Structure formats: structure tokens, C-alpha cells
Backbone:
């Protein structure tokens, strides 16, 4: 009995740690983007190294959680939902790493007047992910809190959309070469895509919550 | 004997709200193909107007979605299936979002489409819009007459196949054209964006197929 | 012959086990929170415990409604109920063993001309209604309380599920116990007056009554139903509570178990009485209907009852009337066939007499005995005949008939030394109570009330106290002791 509760406690800790890791990832992502514009690609590479480490850790944790959920036949009722949430959260983490990697590899040359907009886009997306993590935490401990956090994510996703739209318009109004325009636009799309994915996790969370809510 | 089933309480209301929501999606699909047509014909102000209407519609659909979630929360009739239904309408929301975003990108990036490719783009737009329409028909059938779901889904799948082929043809023509590579990328991106709408519709139908089997096949 | 006659009761038990386990353990098993084998074992053990230890209360109420005094009659009554239940289940109608058996018993009363105690009948029917309301009330309150705490406690989902699982098992065990205690009377109640088994004492202190043996057998039949068929019911037919979340399901099952427990616990009845509160009658109620009551309570708590289907409520209400009515008719027909085609004795012929002593006793009981002067001094064979004669002189109400039958019935009660001696070993009565019985040694009574009055005169220990709330536990205990004493000293005419 005691052993059983201990194992359960360990799994609870794992889930908490996993969500913490994703939240840290969001923070590093934000730093990475602003560093790229403020201090150049070397600083971003440091962030990339850090987020890659976190991503690997998150993968290990995720696999551990999935195995535990199956082998210990815990929460048989909501297992599918929990697994789906964990998996799609992992997708968000992957996208953040990938985007930083793309910055590092492709080193897009973005016109100076757009720098603050890109930094903003990074900040907003990072906030969306942070709120998504918060919603996930609420799902596990306090169902009443899920809704508020989801609403925040939806708000940030919309903000990211609007900002990305503005960035694209500015890019395509300029007199740059089309290939440069496309290159710059792609990065706006990448960043914006992360907030879309965070919203997707929240859709799942909303459904999972409605199933469990008293 | 389920004390929760039957036409009492807010059950009837939910069905109406779902119908209203699906109406918006269909209208969105029509606006989408219309918008592409106007863009290709260079009728900028009309295109802008359609985009504006679509954006408003998308907003309205979002509000409707939230109220549907609320209704579903309290609905007894669909209690067992509320997870499935919620998943379906959330995915349907992706479709109208995608259409709106794509038209917005047309507006923002203003891609220069050579007149010879107009037909191809127009065809692709129509096919995607048609796929959305059929997807909505399948969704309605889930609530009204589940025996028809399968047929509608099959139609969506067929249409998605044609869309894929049309998109491929278009892309081949784009890349076979004598224009700058970046221009090719730009055009290819838009062809892909339009094609994606049909893929999203198919995605909804995949879910719908599972939800229908879960609900009706016992 | 006895096993054959018991078979209809055993079938009732089997069907109860097969169907009603889904109410108690359905969610736990269907959500794979508890393995079926575990659930079935727990359910079986606790159903049997409930039946043997706590089944007496509800059985007594059913016994007052109608005392089916011949084995073939008991068989036919249980058989009629079983057929009605199987048939209505096939039609997908909500059916309750309690309601079928009550109808079938009244059918026997009518067939044999025995009077029906309309007071008890109205208590039983109102209990059916009340049990559903009570379950709704319980689940509403428990839901509100749980929600209040769960929304604030911020317990991890894994922990909630763990506790939920443990509670489902605990509540399931409680539910099985209550189901056994409350519903065993439906299964085996009609066989009690026939006295198939006698009491026995083991190790000099452990007394097991014949009724308890009978209930044990019924419990075994129920657990056979659990093991052989409940899994199929759980996985195919299911129960309404599946559509709830695990926690609300737990609340509904708990409310259900609580209600069934209240309607079968003599202890609770005494506690309520001694606190001066209105007591809950011990009546077999319908497990499935109580579950629906619980679900309604949840829906009231959540959304103020929006979306409650009135048709289902209508169906349940119909069940309160239609099931007994159909069972009654079917029981009448079956009794006729068993008696006339198979030539089985479905009722012992009771004897009645009206003499000045009986009439005087009726006067005391404030019955208009004047109407009976003409019939005084005569004996009657069989309830039907006596009823006809009574109705010829005055249009009696059913309730009055019931009392006349009570006083006029002839019993042969002999206080023999041999039986007095057996008392010491059986430990049914305290030494001073035995003393009082010994004072009557050698006497013979022809009416039960005479025996009881003589006992009351012999010692205040055997006297009923004034009918106040405070005295109710004493009186009820005494009635049980009198029942016991009667069973020991009465001789049947065919003995």
C-alpha cells in the first residue's frame, strides 16, 4: 500500500517535472529569439544548446510517464486523454527547439525595423506556451483553473496571429527581393505555429476536463 | 432507461446551435473560393471585402464554439459523446481558421500569379471549398441521420483525392514555368495553403468516422 | 419436493444477482478500476452477509403483507414474480423484484381470501416513492459537499483516482451488504412462513435461525447470478451510471447503498425512534430505481435538473403501479393452475371461530363487533369461506377484515414441559422471561392473542407498553419475542 502510494507520488513528481521542463523551454525560447536580434547568433546558439538538453529531458520524462501510466494501470478512465495531452505538449517543445535551430542554421537576415516585432512575436508565443503549461497543471490538480488558463492561451494565440499578419504585410510591402521576403516570412510563420500548437494542446485539455469535471 | 435522454431541457437547443455553427462554416467555404476568384481577377476591393466578411464570420464562429462548449457541458443527451462532439467542432474550427488565414496571407503577401495559372488556382480553391461543404454535410448527418455519414465521408475522401491531384498539377506547372525560383516557392506555398484546407476537412472526417462507429455501431 | 419448490425463489435470487450487481459495481468494472473477479467476490460475500445478518427487518414487513403458508403457494408466488421480471426485462422495462413480489403476494391473498393489511401496503408503496426521493436528496447533498472540497483541495488527478478506486470497492461492499439486507426478502421472503429449515445452535452459543439458513441459500443464489451473468449485464446492457464521471458514479452508488441500508436496518430504525425522529419503514425497495433517483440528484445539483427526462420518471411511477398489478393478475392465474391442474396445495386451510370471547376482544380493539353477533358460535374452514360469511353481514373494509381474521384465527398453542425445557438450551429468552413462560405450563390456547395476553399477565416483561415513540423499540422487540414464543409452542393441525 505504502509502496503503491510512493510510486504514485513518483509519477506525480514526474508529471510536474515534465511540465516544469516545458515551461523552462518556453522561457529559453523567448530568450533565444530576443538574443538573436539583440546580440547575434552566438548567444542564440547557447539557448539552442540549453533547449536541446531540456527537450531530451522532456522526452525521457514523457516516456517514463507513458510507461508508468500503462504498467501501473493508473487512471484507466482518463489515460487516453492524459497521454494525448502529454504527447501534444511534447510536440510544442519540439517545435520550439526546431525553430531556434532554424534560426541558427539559416541565419535569416531580418530588416532592423522588424526586430522588435519578431521579439514581440517570440514573447507572445512563449507566454502562450507558459499558460498552456499552467492549464496542464490545473488539469492534474485543480479542474476549476483550466478554463481561465485556456482563455489566456487563446488570447495569446490570437495576438500572435495578428502580429504575424502585420509582420508579413510589412515584409511584402518592402522593396526587398522576393526570396528574402519569403525567408523572413517563413520565420514569422514558424514562431506563430508554436502558439497554434499550444492552442491545440488546450483544445485537448478542454475536452479532457469536461470529461472529468464534476 | 436514461433519465437524461429525450427532448427535455436544453437538448433541442444544442442541435440548433450546432446547425447554426455549421452554417457559418459552409458560408466561410463559399467566401473562401469567392475570395480567391476575386483575387485572381485582380478585383482588390471586392477581395478585401470578402476577406473582411470571412474574418468577421470566423470571429462569430469562435463565439458560437464557446457557447456550444457551454451547452455541451450541461447537455445530458449527448453526455456520453460530448468528448467526441467537442473534438469534432474544435477541428472544424481549424478549417474556418485556416481559410481565413490563407486569404489573409493572400492579402498580406500579394503573390503575383501569372494569368495562365489562374485556372489552376481557381480550381483548387473551388475543390477545397467543396470539400468543406461535404464535410459539413457529413457532420450534420452525424446528428440527424447517421446512416448518411459514411456516404458523405466517402465523398470528402474522393474530393480530397482530386484536390491533391489538382494541387500536384498546379505545382508541376509552377515549377516548370520560366520564372525566378523564389517566385516559384512563393506560388507553391499558396497552392499548398489552399490544398491544406481540404486536408483539414479530411482530418475532421477521419475523426467523424471514429465517432460515428463509437456511437452507432452497437 | 422441497428443492423443486424452492427453485423459483432461487431463480429470483439469480436474476437479482445478475441484474443489480451492475448498479453497484458496474462503473468500477466497466472503467477497469476493479477487476470483475474481485468485484464479484466482494459482492457475493457481502450480499450473503447482508441477507443473513440484516435481512430480517424488510422480510418481516413483507411477511405482514401476506403470510403464504404452503410450499406450493410460496413457489407459485415466487414463480409469478420471476416470470414477470424476466418478461418485463426482455421488453426493456424498468422492473423491480420488490414490486413484482408484492403484487404476487397480494394475488395469493386474493386467491385464498386472506385479508390484506392495507396499512402495510400503503407503507410499502409510499416507501418506493420515498426511496427514490431520498436517493436524489442524498446524492445532491453529497455531490455539493464533495464538489466544495474537491474544488478547493487541489488533489492530484492520480490521487483522486486512487482514492476513488478504493472508495468504489468500499462503497460497493456496503452496497452489496445493503442490497442483500434489503432485497433478500424479495427472493426468499415468501418461503419464511412455510418454515423449511429449523433453528439450530452451534457450539452452544451460535444460534442460526431457519430464516437465516433460508436467506443464506438465497444469498448463494444471488452470488451465482453475480458470477454467471453479471459480467454480461455489465458489459452489454450496462447501467445508467456509466455515463457519469467516476466521482459522480461513486456518489450515486453511495447514495443508493445508504438508502437501501436505511430501508433495511433495524438498528437505524431504533436509533431514529429513540431520538424521537420519524422512523424509516423496513421495506424492500428497488435498487435500480434508487440508482435513478441518485442520478437525478446529481443532475439537480449540477444544472438544477435541466434535461431530466420526464418519460423515465413516468416509467418508474408506472412501475410502482403496473408491475404489482401485472404480477398480481399473473399470480392469480398461476395459483389457479397450480391448484387445479397440478393439484398442489397452494394454501393451508386456516380455521376461524367467532365466540363471545373473540367478540369481546374485538370490542376492545374498537371493531364494530355487533355486526358479528349473528355469526357467533360458529367455526369456519378456510379464509375464503370466512370472508364470504363476514361480508354477508356487513360491508367490511379490508383493514377491518384483516383485524377480524387476526382475532378469529384458531391456533393450537400448547405449553408443554418438553418444549419449555428446550428453551434453556436455545437461549432465545432471558431467565426471567422463561420463568413467565413456565407459569403457563400445561395450558392450551386456541387463539394467539389469548396466549399473548396470558403471557402479559404472567410478567410485565411480556407486556406491550403504551404506544409512544419512546416505547417503540421495546414493543418491537417484544413483538419479535412473541413471534418466537408462538413459533415454539404452536402446533399445526396437520402435525
Residues:
Amino acid at each position: 500500500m505504502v509502496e503503491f502510494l510512493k510510486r504514485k507520488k513518483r509519477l506525480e513528481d514526474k508529471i510536474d517535472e515534465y511540465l516544469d521542463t516545458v515551461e523552462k523551454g518556453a522561457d529559453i525560447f523567448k530568450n533565444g529569439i530576443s538574443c538573436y536580434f539583440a546580440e547575434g547568433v552566438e548567444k542564440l546558439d547557447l539557448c539552442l544548446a540549453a533547449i536541446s538538453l531540456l527537450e531530451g529531458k522532456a522526452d525521457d520524462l514523457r516516456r517514463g510517464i507513458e510507461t508508468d501510466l500503462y504498467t501501473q494501470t493508473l487512471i484507466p478512465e482518463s489515460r487516453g486523454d492524459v497521454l494525448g495531452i502529454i504527447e501534444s505538449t511534447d510536440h510544442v517543445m519540439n517545435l520550439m527547439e526546431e525553430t531556434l535551430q532554424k534560426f541558427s542554421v539559416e541565419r535569416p537576415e531580418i530588416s532592423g525595423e522588424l526586430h522588435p516585432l519578431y521579439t514581440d512575436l517570440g514573447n507572445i508565443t512563449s507566454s502562450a506556451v507558459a499558460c498552456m503549461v499552467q492549464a496542464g497543471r490545473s488539469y492534474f490538480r485543480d479542474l476549476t483553473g483550466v478554463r481561465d488558463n485556456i482563455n489566456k492561451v487563446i488570447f495569446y494565440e490570437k495576438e500572435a496571429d495578428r502580429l504575424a499578419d502585420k509582420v508579413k504585410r510589412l515584409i511584402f510591402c518592402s522593396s526587398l527581393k522576393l526570396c528574402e521576403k519569403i525567408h523572413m516570412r517563413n520565420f514569422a510563420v514558424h514562431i506563430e505555429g508554436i502558439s497554434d500548437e499550444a492552442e491545440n494542446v488546450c483544445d485537448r485539455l478542454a475536452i479532457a476536463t469536461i470529461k472529468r469535471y464534476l | 432507461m436514461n433519465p437524461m435522454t429525450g427532448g427535455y431541457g436544453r437538448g433541442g437547443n444544442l442541435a440548433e446551435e450546432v446547425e447554426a455553427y455549421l452554417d457559418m462554416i459552409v458560408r466561410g467555404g463559399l467566401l473562401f473560393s469567392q475570395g480567391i476568384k476575386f483575387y485572381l481577377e485582380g478585383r482588390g476591393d471586392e477581395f478585401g471585402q470578402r476577406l473582411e466578411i470571412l474574418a468577421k464570420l470566423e470571429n462569430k464562429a469562435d463565439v458560437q464554439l464557446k457557447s456550444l462548449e457551454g451547452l455541451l457541458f450541461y447537455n445530458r443527451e449527448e453526455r456520453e459523446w460530448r468528448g467526441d462532439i467537442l473534438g469534432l467542432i474544435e477541428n472544424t474550427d481549424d478549417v474556418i481558421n485556416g481559410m481565413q488565414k490563407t486569404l489573409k496571407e493572400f492579402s498580406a503577401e500579394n503573390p503575383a500569379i501569372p494569368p495562365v495559372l489562374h485556372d489552376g488556382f481557381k480550381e483548387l480553391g473551388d475543390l477545397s471549398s467543396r470539400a468543406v461543404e461535404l464535410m459539413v454535410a457529413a457532420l450534420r448527418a452525424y446528428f440527424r441521420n447517421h446512416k448518411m455519414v459514411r456516404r458523405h465521408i466517402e465523398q470528402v475522401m474522393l474530393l480530397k483525392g482530386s484536390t491533391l491531384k489538382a494541387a500536384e498539377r498546379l505545382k508541376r506547372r509552377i515549377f516548370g514555368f520560366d520564372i525566378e525560383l523564389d517566385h516559384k516557392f512563393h506560388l507553391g506555398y499558396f497552392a499548398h495553403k489552399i490544398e491544406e484546407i481540404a486536408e483539414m476537412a479530411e482530418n475532421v472526417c477521419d475523426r467523424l468516422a471514429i465517432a460515428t462507429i463509437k456511437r452507432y455501431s452497437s | 419436493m422441497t428443492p423443486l419448490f424452492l427453485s423459483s425463489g432461487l431463480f429470483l435470487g439469480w436474476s437479482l444477482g445478475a441484474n443489480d450487481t451492475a448498479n453497484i459495481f458496474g462503473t468500477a468494472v466497466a472503467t477497469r478500476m476493479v477487476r470483475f473477479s474481485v468485484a464479484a467476490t466482494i459482492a457475493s460475500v457481502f450480499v450473503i452477509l447482508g441477507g443473513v445478518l440484516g435481512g430480517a427487518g424488510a422480510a418481516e414487513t413483507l411477511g405482514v403483507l401476506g403470510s403464504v403458508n404452503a410450499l406450493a403457494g410460496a413457489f407459485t408466488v415466487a414463480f409469478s414474480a420471476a416470470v414477470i421480471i424476466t418478461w418485463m426485462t426482455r421488453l426493456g422495462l424498468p422492473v423491480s423484484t420488490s414490486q413484482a413480489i408484492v403484487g404476487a403476494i397480494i394475488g395469493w391473498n386474493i386467491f385464498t381470501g386472506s385479508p390484506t393489511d392495507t396499512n402495510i401496503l400503503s407503507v410499502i408503496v409510499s416507501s418506493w416513492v420515498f426511496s427514490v426521493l431520498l436517493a436524489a436528496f442524498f446524492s445532491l447533498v453529497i455531490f455539493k459537499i464533495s464538489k466544495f472540497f474537491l474544488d478547493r483541495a487541489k488533489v492530484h488527478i492520480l490521487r483522486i483516482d486512487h482514492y476513488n478506486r478504493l472508495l468504489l470497492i468500499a462503497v460497493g461492499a456496503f452496497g452489496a451488504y445493503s442490497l442483500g439486507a434489503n432485497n433478500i426478502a424479495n427472493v426468499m421472503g415468501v418461503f419464511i412462513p412455510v418454515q423449511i429449515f429449523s433453528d439450530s445452535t452451534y457450539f452452544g452459543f451460535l444460534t442460526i435461525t431457519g430464516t437465516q439458513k433460508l436467506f443464506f441459500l438465497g444469498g448463494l443464489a444471488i452470488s451465482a447470478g453475480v458470477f454467471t451473468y453479471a459480467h454480461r449485464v455489465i458489459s452489454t446492457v450496462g447501467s445508467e451510471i456509466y455515463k457519469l464521471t467516476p466521482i459522480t458514479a461513486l456518489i450515486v452508488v453511495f447514495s443508493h447503498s445508504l438508502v437501501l441500508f436505511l430501508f433495511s436496518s433495524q438498528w437505524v430504525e431504533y436509533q431514529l425512534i429513540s431520538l424521537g425522529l420519524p422512523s424509516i419503514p423496513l421495506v424492500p425497495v428497488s435498487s435500480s430505481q434508487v440508482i435513478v433517483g441518485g442520478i437525478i440528484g446529481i443532475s439537480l445539483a449540477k444544472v438544477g435538473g435541466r434535461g431530466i427526462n420526464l418519460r423515465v420518471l413516468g416509467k418508474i411511477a408506472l412501475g410502482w403501479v403496473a408491475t404489482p398489478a401485472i404480477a398480481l393478475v399473473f399470480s392469480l392465474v398461476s395459483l389457479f393452475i397450480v391448484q387445479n391442474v397440478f393439484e398442489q396445495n397452494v394454501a393451508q386451510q386456516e380455521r376461524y371461530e367467532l365466540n363471545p370471547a373473540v367478540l369481546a376482544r374485538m370490542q376492545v380493539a374498537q371493531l364494530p363487533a355487533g355486526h358479528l353477533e349473528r355469526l357467533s358460535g360458529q367455526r369456519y374452514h378456510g379464509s375464503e369461506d370466512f370472508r364470504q360469511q363476514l361480508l354477508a353481514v356487513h360491508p367490511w373494509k379490508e383493514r377491518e377484515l384483516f383485524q377480524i381474521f387476526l382475532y378469529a384465527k384458531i391456533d393450537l398453542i400448547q405449553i408443554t414441559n418438553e418444549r419449555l425445557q428446550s428453551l434453556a438450551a436455545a437461549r432465545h429468552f432471558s431467565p426471567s422471561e422463561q420463568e413467565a413462560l413456565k407459569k403457563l405450563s400445561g395450558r392450551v390456547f386456541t387463539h394467539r392473542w389469548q396466549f399473548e395476553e396470558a403471557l402479559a399477565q404472567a410478567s410485565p416483561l411480556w407486556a406491550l407498553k403504551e404506544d409512544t415513540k419512546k416505547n417503540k423499540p421495546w414493543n418491537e422487540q417484544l413483538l419479535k419475542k412473541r413471534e418466537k414464543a408462538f413459533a415454539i409452542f404452536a402446533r399445526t393441525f396437520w402435525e
